[in-house]
TrEMBL record, chain A:
InterPro entries: Ald_Oxase/Xan_DH_a/b, Ald_Oxase/Xan_DH_a/b_sf, Ald_Oxase/xanthine_DH-like, AldOxase/xan_DH_MoCoBD1, AldOxase/xan_DH_MoCoBD2, AldOxase/xan_DH_Mopterin-bd_sf. It comes from the Bacteria. Gene3D superfamilies: Aldehyde oxidase/xanthine dehydrogenase, a/b hammerhead, Aldehyde oxidase/xanthine dehydrogenase, molybdopterin binding domain. Residues 20-134 form the Aldehyde oxidase/xanthine dehydrogenase a/b hammerhead domain. Pfam families: Ald_Xan_dh_C, MoCoBD_1, MoCoBD_2. Signal peptide: none annotated. This is Xanthine dehydrogenase family protein molybdopterin-binding subunit. PANTHER family: DEHYDROGENASE, XANTHINE DEHYDROGENASE. SMART domains: Ald_Xan_dh_C.
Automatic annotation (TrEMBL), chain B:
This is (2Fe-2S)-binding protein. Keywords: Iron, Metal-binding, Oxidoreductase. It comes from Pontibacter silvestris. Residues 21-97 form the 2Fe-2S ferredoxin-type domain. The keyword Iron applies.
Length: 739, 175
């Protein structure tokens, strides 16, 4: 491939729209006679609604209706109709289905009024009486009831290999340890919102905050028994999601319900508090028994995870696959059990299972390295895995050693003194820690359409999303690169359910999946252009095949003689050109499954811990990434910077605290739920090591949305140990724990 | 408070909607005469009444900074400001920064430094940067980080935002 666009640090093509306020998000599309819905949330965690009295609210001029389980229309309610493309096994939540309350802050009514302020005020006048029931929200109290689900949402835990029990018993050095992290909430800056525009003949145009417009389309079509073509979902800009938009959230259902009943356009925006009323990263406890030889060879790994789910769906994520990916060990046994609580079902949150499993594994391995008496980096090199042991496959590529080398050099790791509490600066203890990690490099089926019009402009489209990841920009680059065009002549369209099929925008697979489809469809346009060029009188391309040419600088050129070529504008201008339109439906190559496919990272962290106050400052982070081909170093670096900031949040700040007296997450706003702010973030260096991979997908990119977070929290926790000599085994590492 | 039977309270409570007030605001150089209910925040006035949706709602509680606008040149959280309190004021929103199609230097710097990802906090970050420069308090890198900490960026673009602010401060000192 000629690299005239791919690999360039292009500015975002949607940058201007975002810095001028022109970019419109789901709650920002207007409609004539728009009405506003405000959600009433349950005050109890479990029980029944005895009565709802909306009479005061309805007295107000301008309040149109209060929808509850008592007056909601009789749509179809079979719970299969409420499953979406990211549903775990179980029975999905159905808003306003009946009087049962399954979790705290469950939506129990929607007040619709002429203005937002009126709807909000009227919602405060809705009087609800409940019959409360006992509830289970205490994870620790219920861990004894943990169970193996009938069906995992994630991969089932790998089968054991070797003789882990014997190997552990005979290991010269062993540790048993337990790690925990709390529930966390995604908290994208944009709150979940849906604007349903009621059109002629009842046709609905729905603007939804979601990571898959076709997922929302299918969900609404099934839940309301509508033909797919009557449900048009649009989402050109998404104000962050990090997984929260992988499932359609309840404001979408409620807005559609109200629009259909009132035959009016309706907007429903959740409050920041209500952003804590649906999916979240599940609280997880992980137990390890690890054995090694005196020279640091890993001999046994046992890893048992216990993770939160709801009472109505069995959510699980890949928490325990990481020992088999990240370390060579001949004797491994893992398990993953669920603890069902009266909460909303957890939901994939940036690197689900990876951020959590790798955090615990990498801290436990740091403990083992110390017990053996080895440098943590040496320990990892000693136990480097050359194969994906979970599935006994070679890796498609793995440049993790190069991540160690470049990362350690940039950080100055060789200047580290090994003993905890051995480095200081005034009253600050200095700690240096490291960790490594991996994330799946997956390709999914995806479709794309390309139209080259007579004015020489190319429009490529797919129903994917850009949640800040850079999809608009990178797809434009891939298309422009494939046909040798300037970026300005290419437009990429996304976020519209009528566009070609896309997988959900998540799992770090968008560049891999949609990018491969974009390349394939542009190749088809290229083949057509070549045929047209060959028909031109005296064409230098007359006798060549597609393999013999390249597209560069607006021309089709001979690969072995680039001075010979035909300008694409000449092909278009030769007369009779009516444009080229191509579609592809792209499937991953079956041969991929013979390989373990992962991006890798090595992260080195410096912390400064105030010896008297216990305050921890993450002063320096070096993140070295092996992520395959880097499509755009500028947006790629931003992805990794964001992942590091998320790792800082996970390690130091983020925790949704359950009040087990009320069964409610208590710190449900951005004042009490702490995410990193500007002052929490200091020096971050990002390194992309060279990694070539022809197997992972046709464009060789592994995806960067999640690899950036996975090793950060453990590297910070390990640095805090190095600084203080204290192992904090439950996140976040707040100052009371660090002291 | 004395206990009363629930139904009696309900009957006697008549919901009351306050009358609207007339105010004048100059928004992005254009004078608007507006009929506004007292419970309408400046943020909701901009977004829902005037369709100036560039100013974002991220929490409605002054905890995130997404709603930052410039009021008489000073950065404020428009969600914590009732519109009726600001009769006669000048408001500049993200829509008012570019002049004749040319971006404000801070807007251009946000693009060049990739100081955003999803873009939702960006209008607030940009207004906050301009407000910070106007304040003239930030002298050091730590000052910048502290004084920009009222604007949360969940995508984590802070390091790039800091570069923009540093440049903006240098530009203002050079003038």
């Amino acid at each position: 491939m000629i690299t005239n666009q791919i690999g360039k640090p292009a500015n975002r093509v949607d940058g201007r729209a975002k810095v001028t306020g022109e970019a419109k998000y789901a709650a920002e599309f207007s409609a004539p006679d728009l009405t506003y819905g405000f959600v009433v949330s349950s005050a109890i965690a479990k029980g029944r609604i005895k009565s709802i009295d909306a009479s005061q609210a309805l007295q107000l001029d301008g309040v149109l209706q209060v929808f509850t389980h008592e007056n909601r229309p009789g749509y179809i309610w079979g719970d299969k109709n409420y499953q979406d493309k990211d549903s775990p096994p179980g029975s999905p939540f159905r808003p306003l289905y009946d009087n049962e309350v399954q979790f705290s802050m469950q939506p129990i009514a929607l007040v619709v009024a002429d203005t937002f302020e009126l709807a909000r005020y009227a919602a405060s006048l809705v009087k609800v009486e409940y019959v409360t029931q006992e509830f289970d929200t205490d994870f620790e109290a219920n861990i004894g009831k943990a169970y193996v689900p009938e069906q995992y949402k994630s991969n089932p835990p790998p089968e054991p290999w070797g003789n882990p029990d014997e190997a552990l018993a005979s290991a010269a050095v062993k540790i048993e340890t337990e790690y925990a992290h709390p529930s966390e909430h995604h908290n994208p800056m944009e709150m979940h919102a849906s604007t349903v525009v009621w059109g002629d003949g009842g046709k609905m145009t729905i603007y939804d905050k979601v990571q898959g417009v076709q997922n929302s389309q299918q969900y609404i079509a099934k839940a309301f028994a509508l033909p797919m073509e009557e449900v048009h979902v649009i989402s050109p800009f998404v104000g962050g999601a990090f997984g929260s938009g992988l499932r359609p959230q309840y404001q979408l259902f409620l807005a559609v319900l109200a629009a259909r009943e009132l035959k009016r356009s309706v907007r429903v925006v959740l409050t920041r508090q209500q952003m804590f009323s649906f999916g979240h990263r599940p609280k997880t406890v992980q137990r390890f028994a690890l054995g090694a030889s005196t020279d640091g060879k890993l001999e046994a790994v046992m890893h048992d995870a216990f993770a939160e789910t709801s009472k109505f769906e069995d959510y699980s994520e890949n928490v325990v696959i990481w020992p088999g990916v990240l370390y060579h060990c001949d004797n491994v046994k893992v398990s993953h059990k669920l603890v069902a609580l009266d909460v909303y079902t957890p939901l994939d949150m940036r690197a689900p299972g990876g951020a959590t499993g790798i955090y615990a594994l990498e801290c436990a391995m740091d403990e083992l390295a110390y017990k053996v008496g080895m440098d943590p980096l040496e320990f990892r090199l000693k136990n480097y895995s050359e194969r994906d042991q979970n599935e006994d496959k070679p890796f498609s590529s793995k440049e993790l050693r190069e991540c160690y080398r470049q990362g350690a050099e940039k950080f100055g790791w060789n200047k580290r003194s090994k003993e905890p509490r051995s480095m200081r600066e005034g009253h600050n203890l200095i700690g240096w820690g490291m960790a490594h990690g991996a994330w799946e490099a997956t390709q999914k089926p995806a479709a794309a359409k390309a139209v080259l019009s007579a004015d020489g402009k190319l429009t490529v489209s797919c129903a994917t999303a850009d949640i800040g990841t850079g999809t608009y920009t990178v797809m434009t680059q891939i298309a422009a690169d494939t046909l040798g065009m300037p970026l300005e002549d290419v437009t990429f369209k996304l976020g519209d359910s009528s566009l070609p099929m896309s997988p959900l925008e998540g799992g770090s697979w968008t560049v891999s999946s949609v990018g491969s489809a974009v390349k394939a469809v542009c190749d088809k346009v290229g083949e057509k252009l070549l045929k047209l060029a060959q028909q031109m009188p005296g064409s230098p391309l007359a006798s060549v095949t597609f393999k013999d040419i390249i597209f560069a600088d607006g021309q089709i050129k001979l690969k072995n003689n680039p001075a010979q070529g035909v300008a694409v504008t000449d092909i278009i201008n030769q007369g009779g050109f009516e444009g080229i339109e191509e579609d592809v439906s792209n499937e991953p190559d079956k041969g991929q499954s013979n390989y373990g496919r992962y991006a890798h990272s090595a992260v080195f962290v410096e912390v400064k811990v105030d010896e008297d106050l216990g305050t921890v400052k993450v002063t320096r982070v070096v993140s070295a990434i092996a992520g395959g081909r880097i499509m755009n170093p500028k947006t790629a670096k931003s992805q990794i910077l964001g992942g590091v900031v998320w790792g800082i949040g996970m390690a130091m700040e983020e925790e949704t605290v359950m009040d087990n007296n009320l069964g409610r997450f208590m710190n449900h706003d951005l004042d009490k739920y702490h995410v990193p702010v500007n002052a929490d973030v200091h020096d971050i260096d990002v390194i992309f090591v060279e990694e070539n991979d022809d197997i992972v997908n046709p464009i060789g990119a592994k995806g960067l949305g999640e690899i950036g977070i996975v090793s950060v929290a453990p590297a910070i926790a390990n640095a805090v140990f190095h600084a203080t000599g204290k192992r904090v085994r439950d996140l976040p590492i707040t100052l009371d724990k660090a002291m | 408070m004395k206990d009363k039977p629930q139904n009696e309270t309900a009957e006697k409570h008549t919901p009351f909607l306050p009358p609207k007030n007339t105010i004048t605001l100059t928004i992005n150089g254009v004078e608007h005469r507006l009929e506004v209910a007292p419970w309408t925040s400046l943020l909701d006035l901009l977004r829902e009444h005037l369709d100036l949706t560039g100013t974002k709602k991220g929490c409605d509680h002054g905890q995130c900074g997404a709603c930052t606008v410039l009021l008489n040149g000073k950065r404020i959280n428009s969600c914590l400001t009732l519109a009726v309190m600001k009769d006669g004021s000048e408001v500049t929103t993200i829509e008012g920064l570019a002049k004749d199609g040319e971006l404000h230097p801070v807007q251009q710097a946000f693009i060049d430094h990739d100081a955003f990802q999803c873009g939702y906090c960006t209008p607030g970050q940009i207004c906050s940067t301009i407000g910070l420069v106007n304040e003239g308090k930030a002298k050091t890198l730590d000052d910048i980080r502290d004084l920009m900490s009222g604007n949360i960026c969940r995508c984590g673009a802070y390091n790039n935002i800091v570069k923009v602010v540093q440049e903006a401060l240098e530009r203002s000192q050079a003038q």
